[in-house]
Design a protein that fits this description.
The protein is 17% helix and 27% strand. By secondary structure, it is α/β, with parallel strands linked by helices. It is elongated.
Length: 258
Amino acid sequence: MNNIHPTAIVSSKAEIGFNNIIGPFTFIEDDVIIGNNCIIGSHVGIYNGARIGNNVKIYQSVSVANHPQDLKFKNEVTTFEIGDGTIVREFVTLNRGTAESGTSVIGKNCLLMAYAHIAHDCVVGNNCIIANSVQLGGHVKIGDWAILGGGSLVHQFCKIGEHVMLGGGYRVIADIPPFVTAAGDPLRYRGLNTIGLKRRGFSNNDIYKIKNIYSFIFSKGLNLSQAKQKIKEEFGNDEYAKAILSFLDKSTRGLIKK
Protein backbone atom coordinates (compact mmCIF):
# COMPACT_ATOMS: atom_id res chain seq x y z
CA MET A 1 0.00 0.00 0.00
CA ASN A 2 1.05 3.59 -0.69
CA ASN A 3 0.21 6.50 1.58
CA ILE A 4 -0.80 9.33 -0.77
CA HIS A 5 -2.10 12.55 0.77
CA PRO A 6 -5.58 13.46 -0.51
CA THR A 7 -4.36 16.83 -1.82
CA ALA A 8 -1.62 15.25 -3.96
CA ILE A 9 -2.29 15.02 -7.69
CA VAL A 10 -0.92 11.74 -9.02
CA SER A 11 -1.46 10.64 -12.60
CA SER A 12 -3.08 7.26 -13.01
CA LYS A 13 -0.50 6.59 -15.74
CA ALA A 14 2.47 6.97 -13.39
CA GLU A 15 4.12 3.71 -12.28
CA ILE A 16 4.44 3.78 -8.51
CA GLY A 17 5.78 0.87 -6.46
CA PHE A 18 4.91 -0.13 -2.91
CA ASN A 19 5.12 1.39 0.55
CA ASN A 20 5.68 4.96 -0.65
CA ILE A 21 4.63 8.14 1.15
CA ILE A 22 3.58 11.09 -1.02
CA GLY A 23 2.98 14.38 0.78
CA PRO A 24 0.36 17.12 0.42
CA PHE A 25 0.13 19.28 -2.73
CA THR A 26 2.70 17.20 -4.58
CA PHE A 27 1.94 16.42 -8.22
CA ILE A 28 3.22 13.56 -10.34
CA GLU A 29 2.86 13.55 -14.14
CA ASP A 30 2.15 10.66 -16.51
CA ASP A 31 5.58 9.42 -17.60
CA VAL A 32 7.00 8.83 -14.13
CA ILE A 33 8.38 5.68 -12.51
CA ILE A 34 8.89 5.51 -8.74
CA GLY A 35 10.25 2.46 -6.92
CA ASN A 36 9.47 1.19 -3.43
CA ASN A 37 9.81 2.65 0.08
CA CYS A 38 10.24 6.26 -1.05
CA ILE A 39 9.28 9.33 0.98
CA ILE A 40 8.22 12.34 -1.09
CA GLY A 41 7.45 15.52 0.80
CA SER A 42 4.97 18.30 0.21
CA HIS A 43 4.82 20.62 -2.81
CA VAL A 44 7.16 18.44 -4.89
CA GLY A 45 6.87 18.53 -8.69
CA ILE A 46 7.73 15.25 -10.39
CA TYR A 47 7.54 15.74 -14.14
CA ASN A 48 7.48 13.49 -17.17
CA GLY A 49 10.73 11.58 -17.50
CA ALA A 50 11.39 11.12 -13.78
CA ARG A 51 12.86 7.71 -12.92
CA ILE A 52 13.17 7.35 -9.15
CA GLY A 53 14.67 4.25 -7.50
CA ASN A 54 13.97 2.59 -4.16
CA ASN A 55 14.36 4.12 -0.69
CA VAL A 56 14.69 7.65 -2.06
CA LYS A 57 13.81 10.63 0.16
CA ILE A 58 12.71 13.85 -1.53
CA TYR A 59 11.99 16.83 0.72
CA GLN A 60 9.53 19.65 0.13
CA SER A 61 9.51 21.95 -2.89
CA VAL A 62 11.90 19.88 -5.02
CA SER A 63 11.53 19.87 -8.82
CA VAL A 64 12.39 16.58 -10.53
CA ALA A 65 12.77 16.17 -14.31
CA ASN A 66 11.38 19.53 -15.38
CA HIS A 67 12.42 20.93 -18.76
CA PRO A 68 16.13 21.77 -19.15
CA GLN A 69 17.18 25.40 -19.27
CA ASP A 70 18.47 24.96 -22.82
CA LEU A 71 17.05 26.93 -25.75
CA LYS A 72 17.77 23.99 -28.06
CA PHE A 73 15.34 21.77 -26.15
CA LYS A 74 12.27 20.92 -28.24
CA ASN A 75 10.30 18.86 -25.72
CA GLU A 76 11.94 15.64 -26.84
CA VAL A 77 11.41 12.54 -24.67
CA THR A 78 14.24 12.38 -22.11
CA THR A 79 14.68 11.34 -18.49
CA PHE A 80 16.10 12.20 -15.10
CA GLU A 81 17.23 9.18 -13.05
CA ILE A 82 17.68 9.12 -9.26
CA GLY A 83 19.43 6.06 -7.82
CA ASP A 84 18.44 4.00 -4.80
CA GLY A 85 18.95 5.48 -1.35
CA THR A 86 19.56 9.05 -2.50
CA ILE A 87 18.37 12.00 -0.40
CA VAL A 88 17.25 15.22 -2.08
CA ARG A 89 16.76 18.18 0.26
CA GLU A 90 14.59 21.27 -0.01
CA PHE A 91 14.31 23.40 -3.18
CA VAL A 92 16.69 21.29 -5.26
CA THR A 93 16.08 21.56 -9.03
CA LEU A 94 16.85 18.57 -11.26
CA ASN A 95 16.55 19.11 -15.03
CA ARG A 96 16.10 16.18 -17.38
CA GLY A 97 18.37 15.54 -20.33
CA THR A 98 18.28 16.86 -23.86
CA ALA A 99 18.47 14.99 -27.16
CA GLU A 100 22.28 15.04 -26.93
CA SER A 101 22.47 12.39 -24.20
CA GLY A 102 18.82 11.66 -23.46
CA THR A 103 19.16 11.70 -19.69
CA SER A 104 20.50 13.25 -16.52
CA VAL A 105 21.57 10.90 -13.72
CA ILE A 106 22.10 10.99 -9.97
CA GLY A 107 23.63 7.75 -8.67
CA LYS A 108 22.91 5.68 -5.57
CA ASN A 109 23.24 6.86 -1.96
CA CYS A 110 23.91 10.49 -2.79
CA LEU A 111 23.02 13.53 -0.69
CA LEU A 112 21.89 16.66 -2.52
CA MET A 113 21.59 19.51 -0.04
CA ALA A 114 19.15 22.41 -0.20
CA TYR A 115 19.04 24.73 -3.23
CA ALA A 116 21.43 22.66 -5.37
CA HIS A 117 20.86 22.65 -9.13
CA ILE A 118 21.68 19.74 -11.43
CA ALA A 119 21.37 20.85 -15.05
CA HIS A 120 20.54 18.87 -18.18
CA ASP A 121 22.70 15.93 -19.28
CA CYS A 122 24.67 15.81 -16.02
CA VAL A 123 25.88 12.51 -14.59
CA VAL A 124 26.64 12.32 -10.85
CA GLY A 125 28.13 9.05 -9.56
CA ASN A 126 27.32 7.03 -6.46
CA ASN A 127 27.87 8.13 -2.84
CA CYS A 128 28.39 11.79 -3.77
CA ILE A 129 27.63 14.79 -1.56
CA ILE A 130 26.48 17.95 -3.34
CA ALA A 131 26.32 20.63 -0.66
CA ASN A 132 23.98 23.60 -0.33
CA SER A 133 23.56 25.86 -3.37
CA VAL A 134 26.02 24.00 -5.60
CA GLN A 135 25.21 24.80 -9.23
CA LEU A 136 26.12 22.35 -11.99
CA GLY A 137 26.02 23.54 -15.59
CA GLY A 138 24.91 21.22 -18.38
CA HIS A 139 26.86 18.07 -19.30
CA VAL A 140 28.90 18.00 -16.08
CA LYS A 141 30.29 14.58 -15.07
CA ILE A 142 31.11 13.76 -11.43
CA GLY A 143 32.75 10.52 -10.24
CA ASP A 144 31.81 8.32 -7.29
CA TRP A 145 32.43 9.54 -3.73
CA ALA A 146 33.06 13.15 -4.77
CA ILE A 147 32.16 15.94 -2.34
CA LEU A 148 31.36 19.44 -3.63
CA GLY A 149 31.45 22.20 -1.03
CA GLY A 150 28.57 24.64 -0.60
CA GLY A 151 28.10 27.38 -3.17
CA SER A 152 30.44 25.86 -5.73
CA LEU A 153 29.83 26.74 -9.39
CA VAL A 154 30.72 24.12 -12.00
CA HIS A 155 31.00 25.25 -15.62
CA GLN A 156 29.22 23.22 -18.28
CA PHE A 157 31.12 20.19 -19.67
CA CYS A 158 33.52 20.06 -16.72
CA LYS A 159 34.51 16.70 -15.25
CA ILE A 160 35.25 16.00 -11.59
CA GLY A 161 36.91 12.69 -10.74
CA GLU A 162 36.11 10.09 -8.11
CA HIS A 163 37.00 10.80 -4.46
CA VAL A 164 37.52 14.53 -5.13
CA MET A 165 37.04 17.05 -2.34
CA LEU A 166 36.10 20.48 -3.74
CA GLY A 167 36.20 23.38 -1.32
CA GLY A 168 33.14 25.55 -0.83
CA GLY A 169 32.40 28.66 -2.84
CA TYR A 170 34.82 28.08 -5.73
CA ARG A 171 34.41 28.24 -9.52
CA VAL A 172 35.23 25.13 -11.49
CA ILE A 173 36.18 25.99 -15.07
CA ALA A 174 38.65 23.12 -15.70
CA ASP A 175 38.59 19.39 -14.97
CA ILE A 176 39.53 18.06 -11.51
CA PRO A 177 41.25 14.65 -11.63
CA PRO A 178 40.47 11.79 -9.20
CA PHE A 179 41.55 11.54 -5.55
CA VAL A 180 42.54 15.20 -5.07
CA THR A 181 41.51 18.26 -3.11
CA ALA A 182 40.84 21.48 -5.04
CA ALA A 183 40.41 25.00 -3.69
CA GLY A 184 41.26 28.64 -4.40
CA ASP A 185 40.41 31.27 -6.99
CA PRO A 186 41.53 30.43 -9.59
CA LEU A 187 40.94 26.83 -8.59
CA ARG A 188 44.15 24.92 -7.79
CA TYR A 189 45.34 21.41 -6.98
CA ARG A 190 45.88 21.30 -3.20
CA GLY A 191 47.17 17.76 -2.78
CA LEU A 192 45.35 14.50 -2.23
CA ASN A 193 42.04 14.06 -0.46
CA THR A 194 43.93 12.11 2.19
CA ILE A 195 41.29 12.19 4.91
CA GLY A 196 38.54 11.08 2.55
CA LEU A 197 40.68 8.31 1.08
CA LYS A 198 41.56 6.94 4.51
CA ARG A 199 37.91 6.97 5.54
CA ARG A 200 37.12 4.85 2.50
CA GLY A 201 39.74 2.22 3.20
CA PHE A 202 42.73 3.39 1.16
CA SER A 203 45.99 2.24 2.78
CA ASN A 204 48.97 4.47 3.44
CA ASN A 205 50.75 2.67 0.60
CA ASP A 206 47.83 3.41 -1.76
CA ILE A 207 47.92 7.09 -0.84
CA TYR A 208 51.70 7.27 -1.21
CA LYS A 209 51.46 5.67 -4.66
CA ILE A 210 48.74 8.11 -5.83
CA LYS A 211 50.83 11.02 -4.54
CA ASN A 212 53.78 9.80 -6.59
CA ILE A 213 51.61 9.49 -9.69
CA TYR A 214 50.47 13.09 -9.33
CA SER A 215 54.04 14.28 -8.86
CA PHE A 216 54.57 13.64 -12.59
CA ILE A 217 51.58 15.85 -13.42
CA PHE A 218 52.01 18.70 -10.96
CA SER A 219 55.58 18.72 -9.59
CA LYS A 220 58.19 17.65 -12.18
CA GLY A 221 57.81 20.34 -14.83
CA LEU A 222 56.51 17.93 -17.46
CA ASN A 223 53.82 18.73 -19.98
CA LEU A 224 50.74 16.51 -19.83
CA SER A 225 51.82 14.19 -22.65
CA GLN A 226 55.20 13.64 -21.02
CA ALA A 227 53.57 13.09 -17.62
CA LYS A 228 51.18 10.48 -19.01
CA GLN A 229 54.05 8.59 -20.66
CA LYS A 230 56.10 8.62 -17.45
CA ILE A 231 53.12 7.34 -15.44
CA LYS A 232 52.65 4.48 -17.90
CA GLU A 233 56.35 3.60 -17.66
CA GLU A 234 56.58 3.81 -13.88
CA PHE A 235 53.26 2.31 -12.82
CA GLY A 236 52.19 0.05 -15.68
CA ASN A 237 48.82 -1.55 -14.98
CA ASP A 238 48.39 -0.19 -11.46
CA GLU A 239 44.67 0.41 -10.85
CA TYR A 240 45.08 3.96 -9.60
CA ALA A 241 47.37 4.93 -12.45
CA LYS A 242 44.86 3.48 -14.92
CA ALA A 243 42.01 5.44 -13.30
CA ILE A 244 43.96 8.70 -13.48
CA LEU A 245 45.12 8.12 -17.06
CA SER A 246 41.59 7.23 -18.14
CA PHE A 247 40.35 10.51 -16.67
CA LEU A 248 43.09 12.47 -18.42
CA ASP A 249 42.21 10.87 -21.74
CA LYS A 250 38.58 11.96 -21.37
CA SER A 251 39.35 15.49 -20.20
CA THR A 252 38.11 18.17 -22.60
CA ARG A 253 38.53 21.39 -20.61
CA GLY A 254 42.10 20.90 -19.41
CA LEU A 255 43.18 20.23 -15.81
CA ILE A 256 43.29 22.56 -12.85
CA LYS A 257 46.79 23.85 -12.16
CA LYS A 258 48.96 23.60 -9.07
